[in-house]
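Oligopeptide:H+ symporter (Streptomyces justiciae), 498 aa
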Amino acid sequence: MASSLTKDSARPGTPGTEQTFFGHPRGLATLFMTEMWERFSYYGMRALLPLYLVAPGGLHLSAATATAIYSVYVSLVYLLALPGGWFGDRVWGPRKTVAVAGAVIMLGHLTLALPSSGTFYAGLGLVAIGSGLLKANISTMVGHLYDGPDDPRRDGGFTVFYMGINLGAFAAPLVIGTIGENVNWHLGFALAALGMALGLGQFLIGSRHLADRSSVVPTPLSETEKASTLRKAAIWAGIAVVFYAIVGFSGHYTLNWILVPLTLLGLIIPVMVLARIKRDKDLDRSEQRSMSAYIWFFVAAAVFWMIYDQGGSTLSIFADSSADNTIFGWEFPVSWYQSVNPVLIMALAPVFAWFWLALNRRGKEPSTIVKFASGLVLVGASFFLFLAPLAIADGGHKAAAAWLVAIYFVQTVGELLLSPVGLSVTTKMAPAKYASQMMGVWFLAVTAGDATTGLLSIAGVDLNKTGIVALEATLAVVAGVAVWMYRNRVKELMGSVR
């Protein structure tokens, strides 16, 4: 994207007052480019991951194991956003946390680039840790660029920032996917490291344009808290080391000794977090009712993400083995399917924004609950649509690429109905005491959904079979209909929130 820097003297005291980026503080350009390159590295590696795991020239694992690894990895990224936000708030401050996160992600991709299965899993862990640290803090720094929530440029700034996410996600499979599939898998992972290196360099060079408060630790740990935290961390790390040493030296170690605990954590932690907030006696009656309603949205979102995120695993593995990946006779890399969603997001998001405003002016805009229910029904419909290429493949033929593009299209429309609304309702329904933590709670819905997919795969369920695809599709549609049927009860619990 071409940079648009202009003189701006109308808002003295704003970070980067001498120049603006499309009318926004100059620091937005720094964060835009950092996030674009980080997403380039993340989505590029993610597009290659399931294909590398099943490839004869890769790790040559079964589809079920590859899906489990992919799902656990994605769930970990979102799960680690919670401790990532905690580090930004209590230990390093957002700016330092993002710088450290970028270095960890780059190191992780470099580790993935090494031709060894042992280091491969270590690299996945490093990328997940770094992504969790970065995800929770970079958006916070975007908010720091503006004069509070009432700054009229704030929403537009986040829109520009999210364009960076989708630009990176769109370009990554086209570049990293092509090199990884057609030249060398590990060279593809190395390109992801280069992308993160460019993002980190951009961040360090442009950090002078960021708000001063981005360097501040909002609620630093006391010395007593630091000692207690380090002690607890050392105890748990020690337990893990001893446990896995015993399992390893006894000859019983398999990959499931890692996958199963991580998958269970992805299901247990979201339940524990929601239960802790719901039981908090400091919440007044109105906040308690809002949390009761929010749990409906959370469960609905978990079902949505369980199916939606299989676009990068189940659908990708199907495309690799059973689809005719050609356009007018020209064959393209399987990883290119992962560029369909971001380009559709960029094309359709402005249309949806205009459409909701137009309906709102007429007093006909659907409620949050109706949008949520529609998103669920659509993601279910996408898997009903998936039954057609599955049937074609079962008949011994290759399914046309258009079938997969159609599935991604329906899922993207569902995402545009559910995801932005979910982010909005999370901030609106958050109890005052948990205002800064609820965005992390929203990410846990993704964790729970992907952990469920991981658990099914670990149990040996083939997610590319007609029966399980139809069952998941039915579950999503039934969940959507149930949310719609109980909309009046949920509205009552939401109180004044709409």
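The radius of gyration is 23 Å. The chain has 17 helices and seven strands. ok done for today
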